[in-house]
Write a structure and sequence with these properties.
The chain is an all-alpha fold. The protein is built from twelve helices and no strands.
Length: 231
Amino acid sequence: MSFDVAMRWSEVLLGWAILQQSAEHMVGPGRERILFAPRLLCGVGLVLGVYPGVMLVVLCGLGVWMLMHFQGPYNGGSDRMALLITICLALAHWLPGAAARELAFAYLAGQLMLSYAVSGWVKLANREWRSGRALADVFAFSTYPVSTDLRRLAGAGRMLWGASWAVMIFEALFPLAMVSRMTLVAALGIAAVFHLANACLFGLNRFFWTWLAAFPAILWLQARVTGGEVW
């Protein structure tokens, strides 16, 4: 997979994520439709490959507009990641020189890696995460649509302790996956399952496609650094 192909995969996944998010607002108030209808069209354009460079620039402008309108990312981390991906892809399209364009795409890969590693080390420094209490509280008190049966898991202390440590270790050690293509593909597979589980259990559906949109960048970067091939 060349740089251009990796870029294209990121554009398609980002477009799909934006399309889904924007479609939710087509039944909202008129002001929301005015804001999200252009995003939906740009998402469709990215998926279809219609002037992707232009679509990305428009999405950057809409992203800034959203920050002002909602006084910050209205949906937290997934919106910040989506805007980061959009800006990096736009720069990778429009910066002069191949080296500068590759650097913008590599920056996205680095930020993806840090999104896991920093999160893992922050959790490790937190006593409640180390004890499993933080994850228990997520099930017991979360405002996300956790079913009654799932809330009962808040009392499964040993299981939640093990799950907490599995998440912390995986996230903190994620950069080590860069040592080979096989380990990176395996780590990204685990990460995808992790995001899918969060979507199914807690309703964090926006994170799944948004984070997947950055996966081609880190696959490309690992191959670029090691001189290997990207699938």
